[in-house]
Each structure stands twice: as structure tokens, then as C-alpha cells.
Design goal:
Layout (H helix, E strand, L loop, with lengths): L3 E5 L4 H10 L4 E3 L5 H6 L6 E5 L9 E3 L5 E3 L5 H6 L1 H6 L1 H7 L5 H6 L2 H6 L8 H6 L3 E6 L2 E6 L4 E3 L2 E2 L6 E7 L1 H4 L3 E7 L10 E9 L6 E9 L6 E2 L1 H7 L6 H14 L10 H22 L7
Parallel strand pairs: 1-3, 2-3
Antiparallel strand pairs: 4-5, 5-10, 6-7, 6-10, 8-9, 11-12, 12-13, 13-14
Helix pairs in contact: 10-11, 11-12
Length: 295
């Protein structure tokens, strides 16, 4: 049994925001793949819920006039992976969320819920950070635009103010144009497990495909929150495509992260994963962009 007190069923986004203002302690319920488990475990027993799952205005993906990719938060992981816009312009995001749990979880779980949980292991988080995602946070007072880079405040804590609801995730065209990426998830099991470490890389090569024009790299479970390795990004800019580049990215990335020891893995093992996954993801991203690592 699920021990919750009241369940509210809004009929519009505005109605959901009104209910949230009237019942500030109530929790928004989307796919429920996380929150219902916590209720069943007793961690959220007796809470009030505002069920937004049936609000189709919060579901779907489109390409805006300026080329920005807009992902609504109730879009399921499966729909993200299968959507033609994602396949055409941002396939690495589809690859990343296709590694969440099993098919049932991917069919019900939402990309908005994945990032609003604020956990560092969220499979969508590192790729969204690596692509400079921007969040649309709505309340009855208006809409606040926030770079996703500023959203995570700490483990499980995000910058959602009282009365706010995530209503959009945007990827600017300049962030994905002419880029090619790779996401690697290392987990203790091959399937249905959270990441021991995740790494997302995307690159844009120079026109002659001999150097890095721009590189973005982000990690999950390498710090208390999903994190960009900006030192690696800066040092890789303009670098020729060779083995030295891969080593530079690996070493520079390790200076940006701060993993911890947990029952899943030691800090030392995660540091080793940071370097190895950075090398592998960078190499694959470069190859997808039409480049070749020279010896």
C-alpha cells in the first residue's frame, strides 16, 4: 500500500501551480518511479501529492524557430530515445537515458523527474550539462530561466523555489550544432543498475578535422552533483587529434572531480574510472565526428 494523505488531480499547468501554492508541502507526482518507492518505504509516508502525469502540455519534444531543442519534462525516457529530433541532433542524450533501469522504468520515468531528483547518478544529467541545457521554471508569479549548470545545489538538492515547477528543458542550437557525443555508464551490473560512474563527452572538430574546436565533458557520481570538467574542456581546445589529447583530457578531468567512497566503489576506483571513461568517450566522440586519433 502507498501511504499518502491527499491526491490532487490538476487539469492544467496553471491548476497544478495553484494547487502547489495552496498546498506548499504537497509533492508533484510525475512518472512515480522514484517518489512512489519512497512512499512505500515510509520515507514520505503521509505526504500530499499533486499528480501532473496527465498534463500533456508538459510532454513532448520540438524544434523551436531559432533551432533550440525544447524537451518538456514529462517526456518519458523511451520517448526521448525514440524521438526523431533527438535521433537527428542529439543522439547521445537518447543513448544516455536508454540506460536507465529496464524497459518498464524507461516507459514510465520522465526526464524532468530524473533531473529534479538532484541525484548525481542521474543518467540524463551529465549529457544535459555537457550540452549547456537551460531550464524553464514556472510559478504563478511567472517563468524563471536558469542554466542547468546552476540547478544542483547539493546531493538531492536543486534550485526549485517554493511554488515552482519545471516546465521545459532547452538545448541551444550552438551547443549541439556540428557536435558528436558519447555517453559511457559504468555500473556493477550490465542492466538495471545505477551508475558507479557516468561520463558524457561531445566534440566539435575544426573544418579539416585535425583539431578540437570545442570539447565538453561532464560526469555523474564524480562529485556530490553532476559536474562539468572545465579544466579538461579548456585545455583540449585547439589540440591536435592524437594520443596526447586523450591523456590530457583524462588527467585534466581528474583534477576537476571529487568522487567519494561508497559501498559501490572506492574513491580511488572512481578516479581510475574518470580517467579511463574520459579517454574512451573522447576517442569515440572524435571518431563519430569524422576524426582519427593519430599515434
Amino acid at each position: 500500500m502507498y501511504n499518502f494523505k491527499n491526491l490532487y488531480e490538476p487539469t492544467s499547468v496553471e491548476d497544478a501551480l495553484r494547487l502547489k501554492k495552496e498546498h506548499p508541502q504537497a509533492l508533484f507526482l510525475a512518472g512515480g518511479s522514484d517518489i512512489l518507492i519512497k512512499i512505500r518505504e515510509g520515507k514520505l509516508a503521509g505526504c500530499d501529492l499533486i499528480n501532473i502525469y496527465n498534463l500533456d502540455a508538459l510532454r513532448g519534444i520540438c524544434l523551436e524557430e531559432d533551432g533550440t531543442i525544447l524537451i518538456r519534462p514529462l517526456t518519458s525516457f523511451t520517448d526521448v530515445t525514440m524521438h526523431p529530433i533527438i535521433k537527428a541532433h542529439l543522439p547521445v542524450l537518447g543513448d544516455a537515458v536508454d540506460q536507465v533501469g529496464g524497459p518498464q522504468i524507461r516507459n514510465i520515468g520522465t526526464i524532468g523527474g530524473n533531473i529534479c531528483n538532484g541525484v548525481t547518478s542521474a543518467d540524463s544529467a551529465s549529457t544535459l550539462k555537457a550540452y549547456d541545457a537551460v531550464l524553464e521554471l514556472s510559478s504563478l508569479e511567472g517563468t524563471r530561466i536558469l542554466p542547468y549548470a546552476q540547478f544542483n545545489l547539493g546531493p538531492g538538492k536543486v534550485d526549485l523555489k517554493a511554488g515552482e515547477l519545471l516546465t521545459g528543458i532547452r538545448i541551444p542550437k550552438d551547443s549541439y550544432d556540428r557536435t558528436f557525443g558519447e555517453y559511457i555508464k559504468y555500473a556493477m551490473r550490465r542492466a538495471m543498475d545505477i551508475a558507479t560512474l557516468g561520463c558524457s563527452v561531445n566534440v566539435r572538430l575544426t573544418q579539416d578535422k585535425q583539431k578540437i574546436e570545442r570539447l565538453r565533458i561532464a560526469f555523474g557520481v564524480a562529485a556530490p552533483t553532476p559536474i562539468r570538467a572545465t579544466t579538461a574542456e579548456t585545455q583540449a581546445t585547439g589540440h591536435p587529434l592524437d594520443e596526447a589529447l586523450l591523456e590530457l583530457v583524462a588527467q585534466a578531468a581528474s583534477s576537476d572531480v571529487n568522487p567519494r567512497t561508497s559501498w559501490r566503489a572506492s574513491k580511488e576506483f572512481r578516479m581510475q574510472l574518470v580517467k579511463e571513461l574520459a579517454r574512451r568517450a573522447t576517442k569515440t566522440a572524435i571518431e563519430r565526428a569524422g576524426g582519427t586519433i593519430n599515434g
